[in-house]
Specification:
By secondary structure, the chain is mainly alpha-helical. It is about 55% helix and about 10% strand. The chain has one domain. The protein contains 3 helices and 2 strands. The mean pLDDT is about 95.
Length: about 90
């Protein structure tokens, strides 16, 4: 039991480190974006940075369920998965 406790403790520490890294990455990205302003491309030494608009189309399932509930029901697929959590 001590072995699994040590592994879970290590997992929690790694997750904390991941959060810190993600925050640092986001801060660096925000700084680069602020420098770019409205520009879509930037060359920095050997690096080429792009920040372009991307358009995507997604199905609004909430509206579909409201407008055509029977169609939404026919095309709804239910799946089951196991969720791993440490509390």
């Amino acid at each position: 039991m001590q072995e699994i406790t040590a592994i879970v403790t290590e997992l929690q520490e790694l997750r904390r480190m991941q959060e810190e890294l993600e925050a640092a990455i986001e801060a660096a990205q925000d700084e680069i974006k602020a420098h770019m302003g409205e520009a879509e491309e930037l060359t920095a030494g050997a690096f080429k940075v792009t920040w372009k608009p991307v358009t995507s189309a997604r199905l609004d399932t909430t509206a579909l369920k409201k407008a055509l509930p029977e169609v939404a029901e026919r095309f709804t697929k239910t799946t089951t998965a196991r969720r791993f959590m440490v509390a």
